[in-house]
Each structure stands twice: as structure tokens, then as C-alpha cells.
Design brief:
two-stranded antiparallel ribbon, 7 strands
């Protein structure tokens, strides 16, 4: 079995920004939306935990589950898409190790939250880009749309992906993974 080098076999997660509902004033916790015939109420709180610490532990728990899936993967079972062949990397590269760092794609901008994610093992695109990358590709790397395309590609090629069920970004990544022949057990939308 080949050994992974660098980021080829990283586990990856998409996290959502820290809009924790308990931090909002009471009058901002519920946002009513209307559609021509129905009224819907959307609660703030796009994250699944009340603190960034609890949220990152949830993400790490899912990534550990994913690592276990990779260790015991066996035969690759692709999504049911005509003409898609199993990705050979899944059967030739070793899974990430228990204490490996993991890639995080997030729109979180709170510097404390970003530092907590980093301290817990998270790695961001800005951590991977070298000065040579910045010189070669220049100002487009500053645009969030360009960065999102780069991140989607990185996440689509990760060994395991964990994302937020309500995110179209995560859905696009799962679709890309399916087209690349990833095993359907190696992505979870929660």
C-alpha cells in the first residue's frame, strides 16, 4: 500500500461561520420570511453547536468516523453514475493518521474562532498558499469566488469530506466527488 505524502490523503471539512443564536439579541433570533402563499420562520444558528469549541469537536468526531471508514473501506462503491469508475487512489493510498491535521473550508472571519480551529488541527487555504503561488496567480487569489473554486477542488479530492447539509457549497463538493469516482461512504453531509 502506498504511503500518502503531503495533503493527498487529508480529511476535509466545510464549517459554517459562527452565527451562534445565543449571541444575538432576542429580537434578531428569529427571521420571518414570506413566500407568496406561505410564511416560514428561519432560526439563526447555522452551526450545530453553541460554541466554536463544541462545533470543532463535532467536526473532528465526524472526521475520525471518516478515517475509520477509510481504514475499513474494502471495495470502492461509487455513486450510481453511468460511466464513472472507482477512484484508484482510494485503494492505493493509506488513510490519514489519527492525529493528522485536516483541511477546513469556512467563511468564519472571527480571528479567535479561526485560531481555535487552527489549534485543534485545522488548516486553511491561506496556510497552504506559498509566496510563489501568490506571485504566480496574483490578485485573483484574493477573490472569494476564485478561492472557492480552488477549495472545492481540494475538498473534492480529499480522502473524506464532512459538510453542512444546508450548504449548496457542500452539495457541489459531493457532486464533484461523485463524478471523480469517490466512494459514497467517504462523504457525509450533516
Amino acid at each position: 500500500m502506498a504511503t500518502a505524502s503531503g495533503w493527498e490523503r487529508t480529511c476535509a471539512a466545510e464549517t459554517v461561520s459562527g452565527c451562534y443564536s445565543h449571541q444575538l439579541p432576542a429580537h434578531e433570533r428569529v427571521l420571518p420570511l414570506t413566500d407568496q402563499s406561505i410564511a416560514t420562520v428561519v432560526q439563526h444558528g447555522w452551526v450545530m453547536a453553541l460554541t466554536i469549541e463544541a462545533h470543532i469537536q463535532r467536526v473532528k468526531g465526524s472526521l475520525e468516523t471518516g478515517r475509520s471508514i477509510l481504514v475499513n473501506l474494502g471495495n470502492v462503491t461509487t455513486y450510481d453514475i453511468e460511466g464513472v469508475e472507482p477512484n484508484p487512489e482510494l485503494s492505493t493510498l493509506s488513510p490519514p493518521l489519527p492525529d493528522d491535521r485536516f483541511y477546513v473550508s469556512t467563511d468564519e472571519r472571527d480571528s479567535n474562532a479561526v485560531e481555535i480551529i487552527r489549534e485543534e488541527g485545522g488548516v486553511f487555504l491561506s496556510d497552504l498558499l506559498t509566496i510563489e503561488d501568490r506571485r504566480k496567480y496574483g490578485w485573483p487569489l484574493l477573490l472569494t469566488d476564485v478561492r472557492a473554486v480552488v477549495e472545492q477542488s481540494l475538498l473534492a479530492h480529499s480522502a473524506y469530506f464532512y459538510g453542512h447539509l444546508m450548504s449548496s457549497y457542500a452539495g457541489a463538493i459531493v457532486n464533484k466527488r461523485a463524478g471523480l469516482g469517490a466512494d459514497r461512504r467517504t462523504a457525509v453531509l450533516d
